[in-house]
Amino acid sequence: MSLTHTLGLLTHPDREWEAIRNEPESVGKLYLGHVLLLALIPALAAFYGSTQVGWQIGDGQVIKLTSTSALQLSVLFYGAMLAGIYIIGRFIDFFAATYEVQDSTPRGITLAAYTATPVFLLGIIAVYPNIWVNMLVGLIAVAYAVYLLYEGLPILMKIPEERGFMFASAVLTVGLVMFVGLLAITVVIWSVGIGPVYVS
Q1: What's the CA gap between 132 and 155, in Å, rounded?
Q2: In angstroms, rounded to a whole number, what is the distance separating the alpha carbons of residues 35 and 123?
C-alpha cells in the first residue's frame, strides 16, 4: 500500500495525506513498503554516478571513486537516510503533546517517511554528478518536501492549520540541525579513514 501513495503525494497531496491518515501502517510495514525501497534510489544512483560517470569541474579531468570506496559511502548514506527518517519521526511524536495533538496514535515516522518522498525520487539525478544540475534538482526536491511537510502535518495530526504551521516549523528546525550534525559526523568518519578514494 505504501508505494501507491507516492504518485498521489506528487499529484494531489491533500487527498493523499487524508488517505494515509485513514490507512494507518506499522513502522515495520512502512519501512518495508516505502522507505527501504525508495531510499535505495539516491544511494544506487550516487554509486553509479561516482564510479561510472564521475565529476568534472570546468575543463579539468573526470574524477571517479573506486568501487570499494563508493560502495562504503553509499551504504553509509543509505543507513543515514533510514536512521534520519526514524529519528525525525520520533521527534515529531515527542512534539505532538506540545502542539496539543489529541490523537494518541504515533504518526511521526509516517509523516517523515512520506515527506521525504520527493528527495528519494529526485535522488536519481545522482547518476549524473554535475554539481549545478544536482544542486538545482536537490533544491526542487527539498522545496517540495518542505511543502509536503507544511501541507501534510495538520491533516495527518488533525490539528488547526495555524498550529500545524508552528509544529511543521519546529520539525523543519530539527531537520536542519540534524543535517548540520550529519555533516559534522561525515568529517569525523572521513578523518578515521572511511573517506573517498579516487581512481588514479
Answers
A1: 35
A2: 13
